[in-house]
Specification:
Layout lengths: L2 E5 L2 E5 L6 H11 L5 E8 H4 L2 H10 L5 E9 L3 H11 L5 E6 L3 H12 L9 H15 L4 E4 L9 H12 L7 E6 L2 E2 L2 E2 L2 H18 L3 H7 L9 E4 L14 H12 L5 E7 L17 H19 L6 H28 L6 H24 L10 H7 L3 H14 L3
Parallel strand pairs: 2-11, 3-4, 3-6, 4-5, 7-11
Antiparallel strand pairs: 1-2, 6-10, 7-10, 8-9
C-alpha cells in the first residue's frame, strides 16, 4: 500500500509491506472525519444460508470506520426478509436492508417501469442500482465500497485496502478497483477473466484496431473483480448493465466520465476464493456460459458507442482470433502452474475456451439482432429528472421495511 507506480494508464497500489490492519483502520477512522464511508452488499437470500456471508458479517462487526452498510436482498419472501433482519442485526453500524421483492419497492419498480426507467431484468446489476439509489437518498456517505457476499476467504483488511485510496483526503482518486491472484485448492481459478476477457481484449485490438479504451481495460489486473470503491458523487451519473456485464459496464462508465488519473487499482488479498459458477455447457441462460455472453455483449456495446463498426462477419474473424490467442495464453498458464507446483487440467482449460468461443458468436448475434435493446439501467440523475421525489420515496420505503412494518 505504501508504494505505487504508473503501469499503463492506471495507478497500481501494491501490497508490498503487509502493513498491519490496525494501522490501516486507524488511518481510515481519521479519514472518516472528512470522508464518511459506507458499504453496499448485493446479496441473494440463499447466500445467508451459506458459509461465506456469516463470516463476512462477523468481520464487518469489527470495522470501526463505516458510517452505513446498505444490503440489497434478492429472492426473499416475507419470512426470509424477517430472517435477514435478524441475521444482520449483529452489525453495530447503521445498516439497512433493501427488500427488493417486498411490496413497497416492487410498487416503486412498477411505477418506474411505466416510464421505462426501471431495470429490464432481475440480477446483480438491478440489486446494486437500487442500493445506489438508497445510498444517494441517505446522504450519509461521501465514499462507498462494494463487494460480493460469496467470498469464502474474506477478511476485513480486504475492505480497508479497497477503501484507503479513495478515502484518503490527500489522494485525488474517485474510483478504486480491487485485484488479487485467483489461486485456491492448488490450482488457478478465475476462468472467465483468464480465458475469456484477457484474450478477447487482445483479439479486439487485433480485429478492430487499438484504442485508448482497450488499453484502459487491459491495464486492470482483474477487470471482473466484484470489489470496488468510489466517491459517492460518481454514482449519480453512473449507468450500469443489469446482467453479468456489471463490472465491465462500470469500468466503461468510469472511462467515459472520469479522468484516468483519478482511477486506481489496489492489491487487496493474497488469497481469494468465492462461489464458483458451473460451466452450463447445455444452458446459455445460466452459469459461465450466460456470464460470458453478457460480458462479451457489454464489450460490443462499448465498442459500438466508440464508433467501431461491429458486423456479423467480423464476429467470425474475432472468434478465430480469440481462439488462437486463448490457446497461446493457456500455454503460459500451464508453464506458470508447473513452476509454482499447481495442478493444471489442460483439457478443462481448452473446453472452457471452446465454450467461450461459442459465447463470442452468441453475443454477437444477440447484439446485431436486438439493435433497440436498452443495455443500461438509466442513471439516477435521469430518474430524478422524471421523479424529483423518487430518492426520498425509496428512502422512506426502506425505512418502513426495516422498522418492522411488513
Amino acid at each position: 500500500m505504501s508504494e505505487f507506480y504508473q503501469d499503463g494508464i492506471i495507478t497500481n497500489f501494491h501490497n508490498l509491506t503487509k502493513r498491519k490492519l490496525e494501522e490501516l483502520e486507524y488511518d481510515l477512522q481519521v479519514f472518516s472525519g472528512r470522508r464518511s464511508m459506507g458499504l453496499i452488499l448485493p446479496s441473494l437470500f440463499s447466500e445467508l444460508e451459506g458459509p461465506a456471508l456469516s463470516k463476512i458479517v462477523d468481520e464487518l462487526t469489527k470495522v470501526p470506520y463505516l458510517e452505513e452498510i446498505v444490503i440489497g436482498l434478492d429472492r426473499a419472501d416475507r419470512d426470509q426478509f424477517l430472517f435477514a433482519r435478524e441475521f444482520f442485526s449483529r452489525l453495530p453500524q447503521r445498516h439497512r436492508i433493501l427488500w427488493n421483492d417486498g411490496p413497497r419497492l416492487k410498487a416503486i419498480d412498477e411505477e418506474l417501469k411505466k416510464e421505462n426507467l426501471s431495470p429490464m431484468e432481475p440480477g446483480k446489476g438491478r440489486n446494486v442500482w437500487f442500493c445506489v439509489g438508497y445510498t444517494l437518498a441517505s446522504r450519509r456517505t461521501t465514499v462507498v465500497g462494494l463487494h460480493d457476499c460469496d467470498i469464502v476467504t474474506y477478511s476485513r483488511d480486504m475492505l480497508a485496502r479497497l477503501m484507503y485510496p479513495v478515502a484518503n483526503p490527500n489522494f485525488h482518486y474517485d474510483f478504486c478497483k480491487g485485484y488479487y491472484a485467483r489461486v485456491a485448492d492448488g490450482k488457478f481459478n478465475g476462468r472467465v477473466g483468464r480465458l475469456l476477457v484477457f484474450p478477447l481484449l487482445k483479439s479486439l485490438q487485433i480485429v478492430y484496431g487499438n484504442s485508448e479504451f482497450l488499453e484502459y481495460l487491459r491495464s486492470f489486473r482483474y477487470p471482473l473483480s466484484g470489489e470496488f470503491a468510489m466517491r459517492t458523487h460518481v454514482l449519480n451519473d453512473l449507468r450500469i448493465p443489469s446482467d453479468w456485464g456489471l463490472e465491465i459496464g462500470v469500468l466503461s462508465e468510469l472511462h467515459r466520465n472520469t479522468a484516468t488519473k483519478r482511477i486506481c487499482q489496489v492489491d487487496i488479498a493474497d488469497n481469494y476464493d468465492h462461489k464458483h459458477q458451473p460451466m452450463s455447457e447445455d444452458d446459455a441462460s445460466n452459469g459461465l456460459q450466460r456470464m460470458s455472453i453478457d460480458i462479451t455483449k457489454a464489450l460490443y456495446r462499448k465498442m459500438a458507442i466508440l464508433g467501431v463498426p461491429i458486423t456479423s462477419e467480423s464476429f467470425r474473424i474475432l472468434k478465430a482470433t480469440y481462439y488462437r490467442n486463448a490457446l497461446d495464453m493457456i500455454d503460459g498458464f500451464e508453464h506458470d502452474a508447473r513452476m509454482n507446483g499447481l495442478k493444471f487440467d489442460r483439457h478443462s482449460e481448452e473446453s472452457a475456451v471452446e465454450l467461450f468461443s461459442g459465447a463470442i458468436m452468441e453475443a454477437g448475434l444477440a447484439f446485431v439482432d436486438t439493435p433497440s435493446e436498452k443495455p443500461f439501467i438509466p442513471s439516477w440523475s435521469r430518474v430524478q429528472s422524471a421523479f424529483p421525489d423518487m430518492l426520498e420515496r425509496i428512502h422512506d420505503a426502506v425505512e418502513e421495511d426495516n422498522k418492522g412494518n411488513v
